[in-house]
Structure formats: C-alpha cells, structure tokens
Amino acid sequence: MGPPDKGMKGKFHPEQEELIKILKVPACYQCKRCTNGCPVTFAMDLYPDQVIRRVGMGQLDKVLTCRTIWICSSCETCTTRCPNEVDIAGVMDFLKELAIEAGIEPPEPRTLAFHESFLKEIQKRGRVFEGGLMQRYMLKSGDLFAKLRDGSIWDDVSMGIRLMKKGRLPLLPERIKDRKEIRELMQK
Ligand code: SF4
Ligand code: SF4
Questions:
Q1: Which of 24, 58, 100, 149 is the most exposed place for a label (fewest CB within 10 A)?
Q2: 29, 44 contact by CB (below 8 A)
Q3: Are 73 and 111 a contacting pair, CB within 8 Å?
Q4: Share in percent of the chain as helix, strand, coil (round to 5)
C-alpha cells in the first residue's frame, strides 16, 4: 500500500482512503460510545473517537505519532459498541501498519513486538493461540531472557498452570478452516 506522504502532512493515498471508507470512518457522528467503553483510555493521549475524527480529517501527523494506536489492545469493545459500525479497532491496526511503514518508532518497543507476534499468529493459524502468542512475544521482546535472569519466569509458569486447570488456557491450538484464505487476505 505504501507509506503516507513524507512529512505526514499530506492526505492519505487513494487506496488508503478507500480502506478508510471500508472501515466506515465517514459514518462516525462523534457519539463517543467507543471511548466510553474502551478499557485503556487512561493510558491514551488521544481517545478512540478523537483518532477516528482525525483520520476522517486526514490528519496523518497526529494519528501516526500518537501513543493511542500502540496502547490499543485490539479488544474490539469499541467496534462492538459503535452504533454506526465503524471498525475502530481495525482503524487502530491500519494506523499501526502505516506508522511502521513510515518508520515511526512506537513509544514502547514491546508493544510493537506484541503487535507483530499477534499478526504472525493470525497469519499462521487463522486465529490466536494464546500459548503460541506468548512464546513469540517473549522471544521477540527479549522478555524471556530477562525473566529467566531475574527468575520471574516461574511466576508466569505458575499462572499458566492455574489458568490451564481452570480451562482458560488451551494446551493445543484449534484448527480452523480456510487458513489459506486468511493468509492471502493478510498479505493483501
Ligand atoms: S462509537 Fe462510532 S460513531 Fe460513536 S464516536 Fe465512536 S466511532 Fe464515532
Ligand atoms: S480495540 Fe483498542 S480502542 Fe477499541 S476498546 Fe479495545 S483497546 Fe480501546
């Protein structure tokens, strides 16, 4: 798709504009239901409704450099709550990808490690397998070695065992149909 215009002052490219329409950004009427339901607004510098507003106005410099896109945990609460079916979580992912392409460093490198691990997991299995995601993330972020060094890995192992006993952490990934289709979609 290509990075946005150099200096980030320009408008989105026509194909990016098209995606913004598919994500239904123009339908936003600023009711703020997305922001009111978001569990991590306390750490954001722009609220989800403000991000959508700025995307609608083509303010690339504001949205690609804000912390919000990296704080977003892709929980999709906002998308579910939106009365106009604006895919706010999808917009956040789209902006993350644009920021990466434009070479903008995320404020917290571990967030990028998580984002990339999450996408890889979807690409490989068609859905997230928590065990696989954690392995990828721990290796990518360097947390595995840090935790091995300070011994805190055993706290994680113990929590993992407790979650497994409660049936909250599956041992094996579920297989889904049409993985090839998802892979092709993600490449696109
Ligand atoms: S919930 Fe939907 S319509 Fe309301 S502010 Fe958020 S994106 Fe806009
Ligand atoms: S997907 Fe992101 S912006 Fe939306 S509610 Fe979840 S954390 Fe907030």
A1: 149
A2: no
A3: no
A4: 65, 0, 35
For 62-71, write each residue's pLDDT tens digit: 899 999 999 9
Q: In ligand 1, which atom is closest to the CA atom of 88?
A: 7
**Closest alpha carbon to 91 in 19, 40, 6:** 19
pTM for this entry? 0.74
d(CA 84, CA 44): 23
Ligand 1 touching residue 95 (CB < 6 A)? no
**Residues 21-66 pLDDT 10s:** 999 999 999 999 999 999 999 999 999 999 999 999 988 888 999 9
Mind listing the pLDDT tens digit for each residue in 72-112? 988 899 999 999 999 999 999 999 989 988 898 887 788 88
